[in-house]
Write a structure and sequence with these properties.
single chain, alpha+beta, 4-stranded antiparallel β-sheet, 25% helix, binds N-oxalylglycine, binds nickel (II) ion
């Protein structure tokens, strides 16, 4: 499952104190390898589609805000990724235990930012979509180096912004309702698994592609 599970209390503490926490070497190697090849297969099969935003259906506006392509994960369909879902379940349980919550659902997608794309500063909770509690991203960029771009810039309240490198198998958790963040322009293809721990499940009709 998740590596370094013994540190989870420390990590949850940091999440509570600073609204975010970065966890390196998140997935164990065999899950990671599996996810990386699954991602490549979905690209190969042309299964990623242009991401939308909230209520805006205007593709030109979307282009100016975010440029990623996504593939929503589905436990029933994506049976080869059950170990990944186990890790996500495990993280959900840890969050529930530490914060005395009863989160019972999540939604995750693969995200690909092609060269030249970004996601402007935003919050993951917004009007009409306020059931996202914790945002969770696992980066999948082998050999990422300075200059490749695509860093996550976060704006913790009352503190200087920080820039987080999207390194292979690095996970970031943050509060979806308070932490402003943006994806800086990527200078090469940038891959991640991105998702949200949900307060209640979302009726399908309420998902406009976000
Ligand atoms: C998002 C987002 C950040 C990242 O998808 O809402 O902010 O680092 N992603 O991929
Ligand atoms: Ni976001």
């Amino acid at each position: 499952m998740i590596n370094k599970i013994s540190l989870w209390e420390e990590q949850m503490d940091l999440l509570a104190q600073q609204d975010y926490v970065v966890i390196d070497n998140f997935l164990n190697n065999n899950i990671l390898e599996n996810v990386v090849s699954f991602f490549d297969a979905k690209i190969e099969e042309d299964k990623l589609t242009k991401a939308a935003i909230g209520s805006t259906g205007d593709s030109k506006i979307i282009e100016e805000i975010r440029g990623d392509y996504t593939y929503w994960l589905d436990k029933a369909r994506d049976q080869n990724e059950l170990l990944l879902f186990d890790s996500l379940d495990e993280m959900q349980q840890l969050i529930n235990r530490f914060f005395f919550l009863s989160l019972s659902d999540y939604e995750f997608h693969l995200a690909l930012y092609p060269k030249g794309t970004f996601y402007k500063k935003h919050l993951d909770q917004f009007q009409g979509r306020n059931n996202r509690m914790i945002s969770m991203i696992i980066y999948l960029n082998e050999n990422w180096k300075l200059g490749d771009g695509g860093e996550l810039k976060i704006y913790p309240e009352g503190k200087e912004p920080s820039v987080i490198e999207p390194l292979m198998n690095r996970c970031i958790l943050f509060r979806s309702d308070t932490l402003y963040h943006e994806v800086l322009t990527s200078n090469c293809d940038r891959k991640s698994i991105t998702g949200w721990m949900l307060y209640q499940s979302t009726p399908l009709a309420a998902i406009p592609g976000v």
